Amino acid sequence: MVVHKLAPQPGEYSYVFGGREPMISIKPGDIVEVSTEDCFGGRVTSPDRLPSEVVPFNEMNPVSGPIQVEGAEPGDMLAVHFVSIVPARKYAVSCVLPQFGALTGTRETAMLNESLEERVWFYDIDLESWTASFKARNSDYRLQLPLDPMHGTVGVAPAGGEVRLVMTPSTHGGNMDTPEARTGTTLYLPVNVAGAMLSLGDGHARQGEGEVCGTGLESAMNSVIAVDLIKEGAAAWPRLENDDYIMSTGSTRPLEDAYRISQKDLIAWTSDLTGMDMLDSYQLVSQMGLSPAANVCDPNYTMVAKLPKWTLQGAQAYGGAHSRLRKTAEDYSSR
């Protein structure tokens, strides 16, 4: 087992997918221990430091990478398994930002009313109890929330030499903000350029489905990923798999089109795995599928479509790639 370390220094983080030279090069089957910064670049250090005053928009969501995967070519599928995701600081930050979030006017959703007040919440992180402390800003209300760490932004270089800000999710992955990208999940990303050029960041100590206010519990992370390559296996959109579900994503506006993309991809995937035709697969997904929102606040919205794996009657996606990567994760953890 080959284990790499990726720990960018300030000034080495990327704010785009595409157009950058790799920081490290790995082979399929390798492990990467990677540190990531929070979406504010670590600049919000107290509730009085408002993100709009200390973080330029084009420096939001720094990502670590790119990671070049040897042998990856356009048309392949990259498999990224989250072995572990652990908050790196004793606190996480959430906020309401002007003109950002699902329930306020934005540049794309024009309203006559004033923007919401910018407000910052600090959460104490306790790794021993695996909790985060919610403290209301304008009352004495307190609550311990269970940690559920995830990476909101994971992606590869887009096709055609395009360079995209990390904030916008699309077919290359990016800022999808799905809580499904947690420990034990495998994320499948279509490869668009030689080497794939994988980057990740935007750790959340936890996040509700939809990320309605526009931020999760934003946290620097110490993460471990296992990376594999599925030759000529690319789908049109990122997919996920855990022990219980296969999942498809769609990222665009309006939200109903993101929903349609995710559902159409899941139906096609179900058809491929079961051998059923499209309409039979459509019927099965209609009765057994789940449809969590990932984000309804980013430049593109993201929807997820999920199907329980028991409905596939033993069929395995990508020749059992998820199970193989789970075994790799277990071997790493037991060293």
Describe this structure in words.
Helix content is 14%, strand content 33%. The chain is α+β, with helices and mostly antiparallel strands. The chain has a single domain, classed as Acetamidase/Formamidase-like domains (Jelly Rolls, Sandwich). The chain has a nine-stranded mixed β-sheet. It has a five-stranded mixed β-sheet with strand order 3-5-15-11-13, with no helix packed on it. Helix 2 crosses helix 3. The longest helix is centred in the last third of the chain and has 20 residues. The relative contact order is 0.19.
- Which CATH top level class fits? Mainly Beta
* CATH superfamily label: Acetamidase/Formamidase-like domains
Structural class: alpha+beta
- Whole-angstrom Rg: 19 Å
Element string (H = helix, E = strand):
EEEEHEEEEEEEEEEEEEEHHEEH
Specify the biggest β-sheet. 9 strands, mixed
- Based on the structure given, which CATH architecture is correct? Sandwich
Distance between the termini: 10 Å
So what's the overall shape?
globular
Report the helical percentage: 10-25%
CATH topology: Jelly Rolls
User: Which stretches are low in confidence, meaning pLDDT under 50 for 5 or more residues running?
Assistant: none
Number of domains: 1
| Strand residue percentage | 25-35%
Number of helices: 4
Q: What is the arithmetic mean of pLDDT?
A: 96
Task: State the strand order across the main sheet.
Answer: 1-4-16-6-14-17-18-20-19
Tally of strands: 20
